[in-house]
Amino acid sequence: MNILCRARALFLAIVILSGVAAFAEKPPVKTVAVKLALNWKPEPQFGGFYAAELLKLDVKNGVQLQIQPGGAGTPVVQMVSAGQVDFGIASADEVVLSRANGSDVVALFAVYQTNPQAIMARADRGFRSLADVFRNEGTVAMQKGLPYVTFLQRKYEKDMKVKVVPYVGGISNFLADPQHSQQCFVTSEPLLAKAKGVEATSFLVAESGYNPYTTVLISRRSFVKANSQLTQAMVSAVREGWLRYLTDEKAAEVTHTRMHELNPSLDLDTFRSSAQAQKSLILPEKAADLGRMSEKRWTDLQEQLFDLKILKKRVPALELFRNE
Question: What is the DSSP letter of 321?
Fold first, then answer.
């Protein structure tokens, strides 16, 4: 074999070996299993978490999500505080009140930048603002004792004509009584009412000045301190999951199908319409800011809770959250 042939053979061998190396299976990313407790059933408000799991964005970032659905009364904050789960979902006011009572929970990622909590009334009543709900006769069903309920009662107490009644869940009373209004998520109950043939008008509580972050990813400060890389990996996986869920129709459809399997009480059309309704409440102008929180928002929230006499002592705002 002459020199030219040898060179060609050597070149061919290098090309083959390079190709084998290129197509060789990469070693799997080492993952750590983490438990995430939800405070409600699988619905679009948790879509990004399920997307992270289904699309293997958790594994890509080095974590393996184990999502635990919740329900009415699931004590997520207490579960996180006690170390029963690594991460959980709560609202910002829950975080504040829990910290004031001595827990060490901390917020890591806020899904809703605008709180979806609202009051809905029959559209044919012609209400144009939340004030109209309280300044007209009828009933409004709200879960007494919740901070936003106390806020609304204080705000509209001077000329309140509506009768506040306990919220018993569902929309059956709303469908049966034209004078009945109730608490809701703008991404849920109004859509269910419409599907039953009753048009509702919804008014965000946030527009009245009470706007805590919600669907907030929380953990324990001690856990975060001891597992900083794992925490960063978790937040990265969650951010990617939410971004894909909100902007990729195929990813959203896969996620809706899976959540529907876990929660068949909602049909797929409702999953889709709810997901569309929540986008403007979640997506920031810059994708990199998805889930990030501000010191001012946490400070303002504490002041509101303090003024309502719900909070007895404040915590430095920067101790309540972290932007990973």
Answer: B
C-alpha dihedral sign at 152, 154, 156, 159: positive
Range 11-39 burial, b when 16+ CB lie within 10 A, else e: eeeeeeeeeeeeeeeeeeeebeebebbbb
Taking only the tens place, the pLDDT of each residue in 224-257 is 999 999 999 999 999 999 999 999 999 999 999 9
Phi and psi, residue 44, nearest 5°: -55, -25
For 121-131, the pLDDT digits (tens) are 999 999 999 99
Please compute, for residue 297, the number of CA atoms within 13 A of its CA located in the half-sphere on the CB side. Answer: 21
Burial class (CB in 10 A: 0-12, 13-18, 19+), 113: buried
139-142, strands of its sheet edge to edge: 163-166, 139-142, 180-185, 117-122, 200-204
- Tell me what pLDDT residue 72 has: 83
Angle in degrees, CA 81, 84, 87, rounded to 5: 70
Residues 71, 41 contacting (CB under 8 angstroms): yes
* CA-only gyration radius of the chain, Å: 24
63-68 and 32-37 strand pairing: parallel
Could you tell me which residues are beta bridge partners of residue 164?
A: 140
Measured distance CA(106)–CA(98) in Å, rounded: 10
Residues (pLDDT < 50) of the chain are 1-27
pLDDT value for 320: 98
All domains of the chain in start order, with CATH: 32-114+212-319 (3.40.190.10), 117-208 (3.40.190.10)
- Work out the burial of residue 84: count CB atoms within 10 Å of its CB; fewer than 13 is exposed, 13-18 middle, 19 or more buried: middle
pLDDT tens-digit profile of 10-61? 433 433 334 434 333 444 568 999 999 999 999 999 999 999 999 999 999 9
